[in-house]
């Protein structure tokens, strides 16, 4: 057993210090003496010649700026190995370094690899022979067939929007699984005739493929949601849009009427950009009530589904909160002697020129305004339990809202009592007032009861036991060399034995 342990330790030390690969007990390092051909492109067969090639080996290819790749030889002997430049290698010409070594799956990473030998990778020009189908709509799968396809390439399409050529990436090269074919899903934003071709990003110049024509079948846009669903005549309104399958020149229409057509501004009415925002000024001559809003393509004329938006004329009352009595006037923060009947009106189109009228009267009610909420003071002479109507009106345009009703609640019995303000005590005048100081009370010492004396004695006994235990621990630590003599003296001097 001692001999085995000694051998095992010596073996581990030799591995750490010298490496297994240089032990005379293992095979000699592989050596590459030549490579043929010295230049090749993706798909070409290359042969390396040398000595001591592993029985199960991998070819390792490294090139600056390119992810290294391991290739399994198609044929291998101790002196030759043949491999194919793999699909997915760079399309740009450049110098690569080739080594051969053991397959990690068979031997692990301890055995050595060979020297490096240079190989020039030739750029490949992709070629498209066919596209199927040649006519497709958004969402259809299209297969491109040809040769020389590579990971570093992208598939693009040229198309026109408002007579200007546009370039759209159809699919990244990583989606390709073969140097001869790839499949992509037709994206939205394309229309009419397009040309499809392979190329590489501008940072990696490479010859582009030939172009193949195909046609995109136009499809109608889809309008998923539109907010708000209520807008006021003659007012610029910011709409939040959720849509798909539309082009950049699509427009909004009302009731599919060319006279009510609005470009997609991608900007809110009050400022702020956003692809899902548009500002539409509702025509002042449109009728009130529900109207259909659509998204329409300008070239094909295809129109999306409709979403109903209610057009209102002037202000609109959405709801009336239950009235309540209180003792505070509009804008007041302290109670007064008059009870007030307060009501909240919620709706749209409210501004500083909005007034409210009770039961069709001509005198506006006093109010405050904040966003979509109006606060009004009703006459405190209204009879509890009676029902009344209220309506709001724009003082400038004369536009009136719908009519809402409410019921007057019961009055409270008493008013809240104001909190009195405390009166400060006046400073005494010692020449006229009695400024004598009250005598300090005499403190009489108390004699502890027998119960208290017994309790104190018990606590003192427990404290002595704890201190004794601490001294034992200090003595044990000092005996084992964990504490120095100066540390022991410091601890003992800080302990006070109770009497």
Strands of the largest sheet, in order across it?
2-9-8-4-5
Percent of residues in β-strands: 35-45%
Specify the helix fraction band: 10-25%
Q: Span between N and C termini?
A: 65 Å
Classify the fold: give the CATH topology of the largest domain: Immunoglobulin-like
Mind summarizing the main beta sheet?
A: 5 strands, mixed
| Mean pLDDT figure | 74
CATH architectural arrangement of the largest domain = Sandwich
Using DSSP, what is the number of strands? 33
Would you identify the regions where 5 or more consecutive residues have pLDDT less than 50?
Answer: 1-26, 435-443
* Number of helices in the DSSP assignment: 4
Using the coordinates above, name the CATH class of the largest domain: Mainly Beta
How is this structure best described in words?
The chain is mostly beta strands. It has five domains: 96 residues, Immunoglobulins (Immunoglobulin-like); 91 residues, Immunoglobulins (Immunoglobulin-like), CATH 2.60.40; 91 residues, Immunoglobulin-like; 92 residues, Immunoglobulin-like; 26 residues. Helices cover 12% and strands 39% of the residues. The protein contains four helices and 33 strands. The N terminus is likely disordered.
């Amino acid at each position: 057993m001692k001999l085995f342990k000694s051998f095992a330790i010596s073996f581990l030390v030799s591995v750490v210090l010298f490496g297994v690969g240089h032990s005379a007990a293992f095979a000699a390092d592989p050596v590459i003496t030549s490579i043929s051909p010295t230049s090749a492109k993706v798909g070409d067969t290359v042969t390396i010649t040398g000595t001591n090639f592993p029985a199960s080996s991998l070819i390792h290819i490294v090139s600056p700026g390119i992810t290294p790749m391991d290739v399994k030889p198609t044929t291998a002997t101790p002196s030759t190995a043949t491999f194919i430049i793999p699909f997915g290698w760079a399309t740009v010409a450049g110098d690569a370094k080739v080594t051969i070594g053991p397959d990690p799956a068979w031997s692990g990473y301890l055995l050595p690899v060979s020297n490096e030998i240079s190989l020039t990778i030739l750029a490949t020009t992709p070629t498209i022979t066919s596209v199927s189908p040649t006519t497709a709509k958004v969402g259809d799968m299209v297969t491109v067939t040809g040769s020389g396809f590579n990971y570093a390439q992208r598939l693009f399409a040229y198309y026109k929007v408002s007579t200007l050529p546009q370039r759209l990436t159809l699919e990244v090269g990583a989606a390709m699984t073969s140097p001869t074919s790839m499949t992509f899903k037709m994206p939205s934003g394309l229309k009419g005739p397009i040309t499809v071709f392979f190329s590489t990003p501008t940072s990696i110049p490479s010859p582009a493929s030939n172009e193949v024509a195909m046609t995109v079948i136009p499809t109608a846009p889809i309008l998923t949601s539109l907010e708000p669903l209520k807008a006021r005549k003659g007012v610029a309104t910011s709409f939040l849009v959720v849509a798909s399958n539309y082009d950049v020149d699509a427009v909004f229409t009302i009731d599919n009427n060319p006279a009510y057509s609005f470009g997609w501004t991608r900007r809110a009415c009050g400022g702020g950009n956003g692809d899902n925002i548009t500002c539409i000024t509702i025509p002042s001559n449109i009728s009130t009530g529900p109207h259909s809003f659509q998204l329409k393509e300008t070239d094909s004329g295809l129109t999306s589904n409709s979403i109903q938006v209610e057009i209102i004329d002037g202000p609109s009352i959405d709801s009336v909160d239950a009235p309540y009595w209180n003792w505070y006037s509009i804008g007041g923060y302290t109670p007064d002697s008059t009870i007030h009947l307060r009501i909240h009106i919620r709706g749209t189109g409210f501004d500083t020129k909005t007034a409210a009228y009770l039961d069709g009267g001509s005198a506006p009610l006093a109010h405050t305004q904040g966003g979509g909420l109006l606060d009004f003071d009703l006459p405190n002479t209204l009879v509890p339990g009676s029902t009344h109507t209220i309506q709001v009106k724009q003082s400038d345009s004369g536009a009136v809202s719908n009519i809402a009703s409410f019921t007057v609640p019961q009055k409270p019995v008493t008013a809240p009592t104001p909190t009195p303000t405390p009166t400060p005590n006046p400073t005494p005048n010692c020449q006229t007032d009695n400024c004598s100081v009250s005598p300090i009370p005499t403190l009489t010492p108390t004699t502890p009861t027998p119960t208290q004396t017994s309790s104190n004695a018990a606590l003192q006994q427990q404290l002595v036991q704890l201190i004794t235990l601490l001294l034992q621990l200090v003595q044990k630590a000092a005996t084992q060399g964990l504490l120095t003599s100066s540390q022991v003296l410091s601890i003992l001097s800080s302990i006070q034995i109770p009497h």
